């Protein structure tokens, strides 16, 4: 066709995208679609080359990069090299400028350069990216002799020798991998580990070493067998499909699978919701695909290293036994068919556990292992000799290192079929940053970290308990099974407990050990929920938890599993606040278990003990006992029960020394349960909680715990544990002074109206969390316990406080928990008469909260 104007070309490109969208929905092969897009752009460039008279000049139009491979996605950049024989004359410059302007006006994202052969070679010598693009150069228009001159020059031995090129591309890949994870929630399809760049890297190294034109040529050179080629192409085509759909949905050159696009991409690719959401099914295949690419990439680059660098002789060889040797830091089998016996697969990984020098599997051995893994007709655990070795790995001090390598190379799936089900299993939320299998893998690594001396500062209790466990292997087993039933539907803890019990029976563990592992799996969330969502200063809460735990051994196992689990959920989940809560719960429960049920907690004795310790410290500081007694007579007994002696002393000293009419606002200099305690004292007034929450929200402060109390003479004694957005305590002096000043001003005057809150973050917009208000039995007399589940939107707690005020409900305490996009908060409430909420009051509060909190989700 003849393109008469840029506008016509632009319309033609849009029309072609519509055609490609239709063909994509009809499941046309993706290989044809990317080729068709490239051919269509070729035709426009070639026709306009003639229309602009550029055929009259000695200029070669060369496609480079992805376009040079004749692979174009709907909105990919069009990378061009205008190769000239010598400096352009004015007429040629004008024609070329008009040509480039036309391409931009037509809507093509053009990246271009104008160089002579000499200039191109000079730049290529200093930039591996340039030479990489040139390897895939393709002539579109212009003199073939000019193109051939460049083609032959870049393939000479002295221009980027294969060994130098390999090293540069390997370093480039390592740097790229260091910037991202293969299991990011919003992965980049090109640059993340296991993405398209990893496939390209293999092809580029092959092209440089063998002068190969495509991946298929590697089969002829013996560096890739036919099955491996088919696997590599299968992975590439799926990643192409994702990228193609992503371009069509976003309307731009987008390579990141952003949350706000994932559902639409899944719909376009034909995934439908069932037991798992369609988007989860799509992402599951993605994560499995990148794991396969990573393994192939690792194996092939290692083979290239051996061929290009000749490192086979340089690596020191140490014999392990008649079947294996250590080549450098890689384990190598001495016979190619060794894995025909399934037990040898397990023996390989037992050697990994026994030899700390082994960091990986040598490429030829990995190739044999991959073939054997695919050919297994039954799970490896069906073989009694394999089960015996698995237990030996489990019991070995370095067993987790072996399990980690088994996971990386798909052997854990080959051994345990249930593990295969969670490979790549993602959860479409903001809380779980990793797939289920990767989360579990990180959990195992955390358990291993507990044993390292350098981790004592971060995990002071875990580093002690891990060495006191009767059998560490049972903890490792519980970790493997704790989430293994996710994605099936139903309660994953109960289903996983059944799987764990059956596994233990099959492997010959005694009934006691099997019951312990099963119990840990079924209850792996109990300690976290109790610590973060219940009032662990309440003796009844601790006693109830102690009943579930049963004994000190169960408690130690559960603590280690809980901490490792939380730390493996995402990088921001663990903080000192949670660590302190769990340690407090551990020691409180340990005391209950040691004391026994026949000696229940004496609440009055606890109050007297806390008062005595606080008074001793205050008298030492010079506070007069008469002033202290007068103050404490105004406080209810509950205050002394729910605060530690050091907190009581800190509050009391500040109140006694406070001589102003304005409210007292103080922030602790030392951390309280890993956070900063904010204490507010002053005459109680309506909307006090809402005011404090509004101000803290506007200052980007997270509230994790709130203890709302009033004295007998109606003075507020409100205590909050606050953290910065990154989970650290509020520590900067200027920051503390700013918060104090703003709160004193806000609480001294009329209560402000709720301001306009910040917009919902981009990632949150894709999540619709239906507000749920539930009222639970409360152990504290005269109170109601309310659980609130809703979207964690800006200003949430301020809106809750405002709603409580409008419903004439008093807040006694709050536990604030954010789980990704979900807020799961607990509030202890009373009505205006100091009693439990009636059914009518509960319903009214529920309706008002739902109305107030669901509204922002509709915007």
What gyration radius follows from the Cα positions, in whole Å? Answer: 33 Å
**Beta-strand level of the residues, as a percent range?**
5-15%
Number of helices: 36
Overall spatial form:
globular
Helix content: 40-55%
Q: Which residues sit in consecutive blocks of at least 5 with pLDDT less than 50?
A: none
Number of strands: 17
Largest sheet data: 9 strands, antiparallel
The separation of the N and C termini measures 47 Å
Averaging pLDDT over every residue, what do you get?
A: 88
Class of secondary structure makeup: alpha+beta
Q: How would you portray this structure in words?
A:
The protein is built from 36 helices and 17 strands. By secondary structure, the protein is of the alpha+beta class. Strands 9, 10, 11, 12, 13, 14, 15, 16 and 17 form a nine-stranded antiparallel sheet that branches. A four-stranded mixed sheet has the order 3-2-1-4, sandwiched between helices. Helix 16 crosses helix 17, helix 20 (436-450) packs antiparallel against helix 22 and helix 35 (796-806) packs antiparallel against helix 36 (839-854). The longest helix has 32 residues, at 278-309. The radius of gyration is 33 Å and the shape is globular. The mean pLDDT is 88.
């Amino acid at each position: 066709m003849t393109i008469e104007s840029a506008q016509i070309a632009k319309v033609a490109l849009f029309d072609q995208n519509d055609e490609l969208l239709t063909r994509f929905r009809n499941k046309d092969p993706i290989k044809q679609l990317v080729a068709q897009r490239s051919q269509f752009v070729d035709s426009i460039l070639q026709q306009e080359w003639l229309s602009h008279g550029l055929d009259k000049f000695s200029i070669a139009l060369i496609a480079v990069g992805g376009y040079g491979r004749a692979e174009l996605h709907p909105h990919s950049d069009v990378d061009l090299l205008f190769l000239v024989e010598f400096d352009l004359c004015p007429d040629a410059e004008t024609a070329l400028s008009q040509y480039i302007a036309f391409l931009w006006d037509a809507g093509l994202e053009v990246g271009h350069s104008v160089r002579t052969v000499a200039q191109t070679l000079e730049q290529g010598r200093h930039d591996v990216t340039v030479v990489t693009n040139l390897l895939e150069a393709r002539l579109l228009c212009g003199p073939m002799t000019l193109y051939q001159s460049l083609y032959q020059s870049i393939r000479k031995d002295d221009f980027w020798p294969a060994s130098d090129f390999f090293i540069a591309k390997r370093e480039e890949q390592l740097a790229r991998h260091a910037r991202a994870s293969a299991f990011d929630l919003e992965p980049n399809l090109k640059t993340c580990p296991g993405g398209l760049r990893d496939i390209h890297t293999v092809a580029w190294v092959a092209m440089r070493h063998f002068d190969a034109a495509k991946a298929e040529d590697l089969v002829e050179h013996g560096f890739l067998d036919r099955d491996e080629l088919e696997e590599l192409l299968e992975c590439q085509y799926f990643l192409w499909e994702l990228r193609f759909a992503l371009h069509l949905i976003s309307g731009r050159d987008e390579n990141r699978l952003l949350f706000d696009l994932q559902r639409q991409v899944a719909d376009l690719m034909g995934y439908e919701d069932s037991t798992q959401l369609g988007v989860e099914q799509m992402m599951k295949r993605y994560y499995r695909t990148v794991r396969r690419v990573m393994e192939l990439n690792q194996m092939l680059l290692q083979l290239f290293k051996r061929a290009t660098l000749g490192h086979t002789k340089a690596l020191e060889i140490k014999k392990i036994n008649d079947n294996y040797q250590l080549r450098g830091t890689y384990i190598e089998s001495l016979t190619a068919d060794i894995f025909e016996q399934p037990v040898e697969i397990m023996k390989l990984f037992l050697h990994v556990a026994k030899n700390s020098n082994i960091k990986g599997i040598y490429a030829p051995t990995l190739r044999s292992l991959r073939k054997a893994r695919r050919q297994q007709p039954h799970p490896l655990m069906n073989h009694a000799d394999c089960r015996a070795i698995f237990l030996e790995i489990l019991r070995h001090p370095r067993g987790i290192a072996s399990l980690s390598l088994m996971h990386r190379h798909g052997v854990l799936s080959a051994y345990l079929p249930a593990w295969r089900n969670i490979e790549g299993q993602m959860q479409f939320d903001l809380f779980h940053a990793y797939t289920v299998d990767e989360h579990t893998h990180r959990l195992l690594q955390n358990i291993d970290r507990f044993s390292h001396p350098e981790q004592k500062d971060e995990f002071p209790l875990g580093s002690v308990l891990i060495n006191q466990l009767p059998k560490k292997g049972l903890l490792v087993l519980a970790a493997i099974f704790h989430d293994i039933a996710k994605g099936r539907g139903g309660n994953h803890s109960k289903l996983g407990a059944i799987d764990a019990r059956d596994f233990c029976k099959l492997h010959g563990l005694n009934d006691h050990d099997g019951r312990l592992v099963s119990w840990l799996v079924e209850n792996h969330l109990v300690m976290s929920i109790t610590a973060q969502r219940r009032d662990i200063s309440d003796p009844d809460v601790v006693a109830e938890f102690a009943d579930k735990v049963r004994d000190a051994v169960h408690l130690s196992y559960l603590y280690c599993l809980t901490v490792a689990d939380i730390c493996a959920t995402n990088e921001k989940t663990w903080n000192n606040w949670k660590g302190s809560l769990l340690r407090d719960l551990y020691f409180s429960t340990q005391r209950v278990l040691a004391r026994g049920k026949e000696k229940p907690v004496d609440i009055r004795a606890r109050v007297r003990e806390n008062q005595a310790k606080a008074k001793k410290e205050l008298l030492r500081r010079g506070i007069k006992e008469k002033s202290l007694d007068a103050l404490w007579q105004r406080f209810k007994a509950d205050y002394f029960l729910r605060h530690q002696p050091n907190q009581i002393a800190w509050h009391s000293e500040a109140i006694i020394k406070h001589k102003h009419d304005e409210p007292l606002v103080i922030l602790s200099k030392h951390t309280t349960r890993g956070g900063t305690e904010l204490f507010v004292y002053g005459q109680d007034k309506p909307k006090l909680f809402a005011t404090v929450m509004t101000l803290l929200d506007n200052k980007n402060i997270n509230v994790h715990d709130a203890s709302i109390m009033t004295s007998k003479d109606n003075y507020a004694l409100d205590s909050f544990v606050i953290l910065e957005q990154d989970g650290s305590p509020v520590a900067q002096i200027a920051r503390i002074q700013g918060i104090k000043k703003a709160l004193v001003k806000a609480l001294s005057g009329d209560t402000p109206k709720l301001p306009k809150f910040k917009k919902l973050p981009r990632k949150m917009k894709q999540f619709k969390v239906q507000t749920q208000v539930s009222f639970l039995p409360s152990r504290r007399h005269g109170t109601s316990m309310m659980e609130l589940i809703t979207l964690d939107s800006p200003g949430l707690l301020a809106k809750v406080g405002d709603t409580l005020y409008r419903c004439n409900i008093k807040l006694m305490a709050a536990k604030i928990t954010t789980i990704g996009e979900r807020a799961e908060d607990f509030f202890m409430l009373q009505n205006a008469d100091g009693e439990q909420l009636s059914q009518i009051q509960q319903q009214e509060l529920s309706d008002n909260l739902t109305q107030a909190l669901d509204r922002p989700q509709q915007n």
